[in-house]
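Reviewer 2 asked us to include a model.

Predict the structure of this chain.
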Amino acid sequence: MSILANFLVFCGAWLLLLALRPLDQLRRRLPDTSCRTAWMFLSIMVALFLCGYLVYGWLFWNANNHWSCIVVPTIFFFGAVFVLVVCTLSAKTANDVRRLCHLEHENVTDALMGIYNRRYMDKCLREEAEKAKRYGLELSVLLIDVDHFKDINDTYGHAIGDQVLHSLGQLIQGSVRDFDRVFRYGGEEIVVLLPYTNLNGARILGERLCGWVAERSLCQIDRGQVQVTISVGVSTFNADKEDMGILMSRADAAMYRAKENGRNRVECANAIEETDG
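Predicted model (C-alpha cells):
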C-alpha cells in the first residue's frame, strides 16, 4: 500500500509541476492587468500545492499500510490531474482567442494604412445610419484625399508613397475621438465617420486636419522631409431623405470641389445637394 500511495503523491506533484508551464505561458501573454495578477496568484497557489504534496510524501513515506490510507493520495493525484487539465485548456483557449482576435483585426484593417478597410466601412455606415434614423441622431462624414499624391509616387517612388499613406492614416486616427472611426476608402482616400456630429462640427474637424497634415512631415528621406496637403469633403446624413450612398456621393462631390477651389481646404455639401438628397 505504501508504494502505491507514494507513487500517487509524487505523480500528483509531477503533474502540478507540469501545470506551471502553461500557467507561465498564459501569464506572459496577458497584458499587465488585474487578470494577469490573478493568474500569477494561481501560479503561486499551484507551487504551494506542489510543495504540500512533497511534504506529505516525505512525512508519510512508507506509513500508508492500509487500503483506507490510499484515499488521500488518490485525491491528491486526481486533484493534480484536474489542475493540469484546467491550466492546459486555459492556455490553449487564450491562444485560440488571441488568434481569432488577430484574424478579426486583419479582416477589418487595411494592411498598408493601419486603419479600417472599405468592407468594414460599409458595415459601420449601415449601422450608424440605422441608429441615426431610429433615434434622430446627427451623423457626418469626412472624405479626405491627398493632394497631388501621384507626384509623390513619381518623384520618390511607391515605397515612400506607402510610408506617407501609413503616416497619414495614423495621424488622422490619432486626431479624432475614440468613438469616431477612420477608414481607407480606396487609393489615397480616407473616410472619417463622425457619429453625434453636425455639419459645422465636422467642418471644424476637417479644417483642423488640413492644418495638422500640412504642418507635419509624414516621411523622412535623404533629401529632407515629405509633406503633403489634403482636400476634405464634408457631408451630413439626412435621415428623412437619403441613404448612405447619397451621403457618400455628396461628400465626394464636396471633396472634388475642394480640389477645384485650390486644394488644402474643406468644402461642405451645399444646400442644393442637401435638398436634392
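The radius of gyration is 30 Å. The beta strands are 139-146, 181-186, 189-195, 219-221, 224-226, 230-236, 266-268. We have added this to the supplementary material.
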